[in-house]
Design goal:
By secondary structure, this protein is α+β, with helices and mostly antiparallel strands. The chain folds into three domains: about 45 residues, no CATH class; about 240 residues, 3-Layer(aba) Sandwich (Rossmann fold), CATH 3.40.50.1110; about 160 residues, Jelly Rolls (Sandwich), CATH 2.60.120.1360. About 30% of the residues lie in helices and about 25% in strands. Strand 10 and strand 11 form a beta hairpin. The radius of gyration is 26 Å and the shape is globular.
Length: about 475
């Protein structure tokens, strides 16, 4: 073949490719439900998009232990808080409420008087198994005191980091989120937005059966859990909606601690057992003609900080207004809730297609915050926004197109409700950071490009904890300065 013929051929090929680049649909041509045919554009072939480059080694290397820099006894006084704030992703306060966490920090600083401080950490699957919460709880209890993991689902639906759970096979779990069982004829799901039973559901025409039902629950120490969750003195059972009394027996390491009964009735009841010594490896045995709806069990000490892990898999966080408000208000009052941490948004990301849809989600989320604020007027709120999430677009994994719109709407809703926002997306590095976290060595996130690995969980939890303690320390210094000025 002559050189000119080769040249003509090459030029023709490039011409055809150029035409295809110009006319081929940007979103590709859908061949089937699962296959889309793409062709690269001129920009994709020849122009550097300037994608955000994330240095995960630097992110991990810049982590620090804030407790060593800011001990509770204030023995190190020369730390410049504003300079330290530059090293982390700080909490973002509403412009009109720069001290929105003061109520909580005041209680935290007065634990001798308060005895207990309670934080309820609600979230989606990102916190399942006590992920993120466990680290935050361990650090807070190490700093301020407290033993035990707080609220725990009676029936485990996934493995727990902090405690090992087993149960008899006849337990039923009903949730007020996700796939809701239409046999449940009420919306009284309680503080964990779920209830558990060892007997079938009942209704208004219930008749007492001839034989009793029975079931057991077991909670034991986890080898990988933090030491602060492995022993406790106080046990609580939150329950209600029972047609008949039921018998309860509590054991620890096969030794019977107490034999008692649970009440019948529609109200919220709390059974409390207090041990004179620290205990672990607890088993509950139940027997009765009907089972109460058991909302939660809790393991605690007499004093300290308690951080409840409440994961709602698949939820976008818009569940509080769809459950029984009276039961929730009563539950929060009995629990003594001082701070809500809400970590949602990720489950909505794949379904929000434009800015208007993001605004609508922000409005729905605001109603949840307003409801909780009305339910517990003196409680404070921190919202942790969604992480970066990546979807495969053509050949590469990239941040979901509307993720930043969703984050901005959640931030606006949070501040409108008087809450404080923490930007997990920004802490990770922003746009396309999830891909970098997945490809880190060792990996910081899983290949679903959504969830953190255990290592990544500890990194992101430390980031949040540092931001939290910085504000707590700033509050303490501000209070001391105000006392001096007086």
């Amino acid at each position: 073949m002559k050189p000119k013929h080769v040249l003509y051929f090459v030029v023709s090929v490039f011409a055809i490719l150029g035409v295809l680049m110009a006319v081929f649909p940007k979103d590709g041509i859908r061949l089937t439900d699962d296959w889309i045919l793409y062709f690269p554009s001129f920009e994709e072939m020849f122009i550097d998009k300037g994608k955000n480059k994330i240095d995960t080694d630097s992110i991990v290397g810049n982590q620090f232990n804030i407790d060593s820099l800011m001990p509770l006894d204030d023995s190190i006084k020369e730390i410049d808080l504003e300079e330290l704030k530059k090293l982390l992703t700080p909490l973002e306060f509403p412009k009109d409420k720069p001290h929105a966490l003061d109520n909580f920090f005041e209680k935290l600083n007065n634990l001798d008087k308060e005895q207990k401080v309670r934080i309820m950490h609600y979230g989606d699957s990102q916190i399942e198994g006590d992920r993120i919460t466990a680290y935050f709880r361990s650090k807070l209890q190490g700093r301020y005191g407290g033993l035990g993991m707080g609220l725990c689902s009676p029936v485990a639906v996934y493995s727990q980091f902090s405690i090992l759970q087993e149960s008899s096979q006849n337990w039923y779990r009903y949730t007020g989120f996700g796939m809701i069982d239409n046999r449940v004829n009420h919306v009284k799901y309680g503080p964990m937005i779920a209830f558990n039973r060892f007997a079938p559901l009942t209704d208004s025409v219930w008749k007492c059966p001839e034989t009793k039902y029975s079931g057991w629950l077991s909670f034991s120490k986890s080898d990988i859990g933090y030491s602060n969750t492995k022993k406790f003195k106080e046990i609580y059972i939150y329950y209600g909606n029972a047609k008949e009394k039921s018998r309860l027996r509590i054991l620890s390491n096969d030794e019977v601690l107490v034999t008692d009964s649970l009440q019948k009735g529609d109200s919220l009841f709390v059974y409390k057992y207090v041990s004179s010594d620290y205990i672990d490896n607890v088993k509950f045995e139940f027997e009765g003609y009907d089972s109460p709806d058991i909302y939660a069990v809790s393991f605690e000490d007499a004093t300290g900080v308690y951080v409840d892990n409440i994961p709602l898999r698949g939820s976008s966080g818009t569940v509080f207004t769809t459950t029984n408000g009276g039961l929730l208000v009563q539950s929060f009052a009995v629990l003594g809730t001082d701070l809500f941490i809400l970590q949602f948004g990720g489950n909505s990301v794949p379904y929000i297609e434009d800015k208007k849809s993001a605004e609508q989600f922000g409005n729905y989320f605001y109603y949840q915050l307003a409801f909780l604020k009305n339910a517990v007027p003196n409680a404070c709120f921190i919202v942790i926004g969604p992480s970066d999430m990546a979807v495969k677009l053509k050949a590469d994994f990239e941040t979901y197109p509307n993720l930043e719109n969703i984050i901005e709407e959640i931030r606006k809703a949070t501040h409108k409700a008087g809450g404080v926002y923490w930007d997990m997306y920004k802490a990770m590095g922003g746009e396309n950071s999830m891909t970098a976290w997945v490809n880190a060595d060792p990996p910081l996130a899983g290949t679903d490009y959504t969830h953190f690995t255990p290592y990544g969980t500890s990194v992101i939890a430390n980031m949040f904890y540092n931001a939290f303690i910085l504000e707590a320390t700033e509050y303490t210094k501000r209070m001391k300065n105000e006392q001096i000025d007086k």
